[in-house]
Amino acid sequence: MRYDFDKVTERRGTNSVKWSGGENELPMWVADMDFQTAPAIVDAIMKRAEHGIFGYSVIPDEWYTAYIGWWKTRHGVEFRKSEMMFSSGVVPTLACCIKAFTEPNDKVLILSPVYYVFYKLIEQNGRRVLDCPLSETGGVYSIDRERLEAAMSDPDTKLMLLSDPHNPVGKIWSREELAEIGELADRYGVTVVSDEIHCDLTDPDVSYVPYYSASELCAENGIVCVSPTKTFNLAGLQSSAVIVRNEELRKAVSRALTIDNCAYPNAFAVQAAVAAFEQGGEWLDELREYICSNRNLVSDYLSRNIPEIKLTPSAATYLLWLDCRELGVSSKKLTQHIRSSTGLYLTDGGPFGGEGFLRMNIACPKTLLRDGLERLKKGVESIPRP
């Protein structure tokens, strides 16, 4: 491989949220990677930094061109420049959409288990969470159509937050599943906001279907949020795009982003995104292979050493959904015990709507991953038994 993903880069002392814990702690929780980003991106940022003036920035044509070219080449869909808007992040965009398309006490639909921030955004803005739990059989998750239609048809349901690929279960929704969501949303007047921030982090030779492209109805009732930040480990640069076909929805989103001051880029957001999408393809392809091999490593280790923990099958993201229900311990207590006894910091699945599950970030060099697995084994073995 051209790029060295086995290299361990010291992150303590860099104001990293992930690595802000104790010296003995190994963080495998928050969704950022322990890999240096693509060299072309570093070069672009350094070139911009050398200019020495960091005033207010505009969005140049090259930003639109980079996004349009990437999605056309990688995902077979062509965004239109007129439909695209800059946003400082996907989460700020979700918050803006909640405020733009719902009123206090309205319901916002989610498919649990799902990214815990969805719950927070809904509740903190005075709206109600309407949970439509995914069906699960043998670790395979699917949408229950009857349950979904019942939720969509609720007159208080005005908005749906969709995760695609789905965080934390790693599910890539099919064109048929997305089209069905779009058809129901159209029938019952529900706007769909699709968080597609993990879309490029699929297994090698596997792609995802943008909600925008699943059907004409999806394109008309959908708001698509995409970004290079998860893909290229750029979360701290606060850069994303929102794509909205429907003019009425687009005007509402644009107004909401402007009101909340989310529509303006920092001095490095544009250059990093352009470099990522124009020069980062080879780096990403090697990264995807490395993450896939890491997932295989975890699968093999669990089956041989901790068979009580089942790995949820997935084809996207670097986040693993670990089924720990056989251990008979609440996910909160399990997370706390593993952290306190071994220093391994994983994410409690409870706030995602997944009691008995843990989420594990495997976007790290294999030396760290093997260390984490050994700590997990030690933590499970030392769980206090009745």
Write up this protein:
This protein is 41% helix and 15% strand. By secondary structure, the chain is an alpha/beta fold. The protein has 2 domains: 26-39 and 281-381, Aspartate Aminotransferase, domain 1 (Alpha-Beta Complex), CATH 3.90.1150; 41-279, Aspartate Aminotransferase, domain 2 (3-Layer(aba) Sandwich), CATH 3.40.640.10. Strands 2-10-9-8-7-3-4 form a 7-stranded mixed sheet, with helices on both faces. A hairpin with an 8-residue loop joins strand 14 (347-348) and strand 15. Helix 3 (90-101) packs across helix 9 (247-259), helix 11 packs parallel to helix 13 (366-381) and helix 12 (331-342) crosses helix 13 (366-381). The model has no long low-confidence stretch (mean pLDDT 97).
Q: Structural class per helix/strand content? A: alpha/beta
Order of helices and strands: EHHEHEHEEEHEHEHHEEHHHEEHEEEH
Q: Could you tell me how far the N terminus lies from the C terminus, measured between alpha carbons in angstroms?
A: 49 Å
Beta-strand residue fraction? 5-15%
Mean pLDDT across the residues is 97
Structural shape: globular
What is the CATH top level name of the largest domain?
A: Alpha Beta
Number of helices: 13
- Helix content class: 40-55%
The fourth-level CATH homologous superfamily of the largest domain is Type I PLP-dependent aspartate aminotransferase-like (Major domain)
Name the poorly predicted regions: none
